[in-house]
Amino acid sequence: MMQALLYDPMYRDLQSPIWGEEDKDFVVPRHIPTCFTHVKEDGMTALHVMHALDPSQPFDLEQIVQYALIFGRPGLENTWQGIAFDFVYRMHWQTLFGFALCQALCTTSAAKPAVVRRLALVMVRPRMYREAVASYNAAFPDQPMVAQYGSHLNLIQVHVPDKMAQNFSDDDTLRVLLHNQILLDWVDHAYTYDVVYLEQQFYNPTMSLDIFCEIDDKRHQRLLCYGTPSAIPQWDGWREISEDDHYHLLFKHDEERALPESPEAKGLYYYI
Question: In this predicted model, what pLDDT tens digit does every residue of 75-94 receive, in sequence order?
Fold first, then answer.
């Protein structure tokens, strides 16, 4: 539905509801709380800088939220595939968790997008991982898969040579999940991320559309048999934008709008 609104000419050319200079002045705060700023050596006031994601905390969803808000350019085409935004800057917790899970299982390399894609396309098919775990336990009854729990997980990231990335298969993906003893409920919880990721592929495909259509057909068949995977209630719903996020966005918007040519300052940034 959102894509229809963004691309339908009937909606695309509507004027912004914040149109005049007096309206812009209305939405720009006149005072920034000092807790969000620091004074530079030249005496100028600046916002605290949002640094890159900390790889040692892959499941710190708050840092993913803040980084995606500031650098993901909500409302424009961006690379944060699978994360669901809405028009008031909320993000869906299930999609954030799925994004974090896929990122945590992959090393940073040129092959990473292909591995993440395969992880999402495996997890989007309900009960596929559960069936793999059941098969593994039947084959090794004396050493069944015991899922990891707790805040400190021992994850072994998969590294695929760049030239072999396109050969990374469903079976390889299931072995990665099994080897890392990923909790069954975690894969179910990531389902919404996988659906959003798959839906985005139909607009900006990274492989043949026939492949995505086939996977989507299999997803529907499994949904008819097993139903929609359950979410973990404590990690479900929408993450509301905070005051901290709001001020970071305002400063980022003003910073980019001041540049001679600033395409990033367009899109939903205009509605802050």
Answer: 665 556 788 888 778 889 99
Separation CA 178–CA 175 (nearest Å) = 5
Structure tokens, 34: 């000092």
The C-alpha angle with vertex 38 and arms to 48 and 47, in degrees rounded to 5, equals: 35
N-term to C-term CA, the chain:
22
Please report how many Cα atoms fall inside a 13 Å half-sphere around the Cα of residue 41, on the Cβ side: 0
Q: Is the pTM of this model over 0.85?
A: no
DSSP 250: H
Helix (H/G/I), strand (E/B), else coil: 254: helix
The SS3 call for residue 136 is helix
Residue pair 245/51 in contact by the 8 Å Cβ criterion: no
List C-alpha distances in Å: 199 to 1, 7, 12, 170, 202: 11, 15, 21, 19, 6
Is residue 258 within 8 A of residue 36, CB to CB? The reply is no
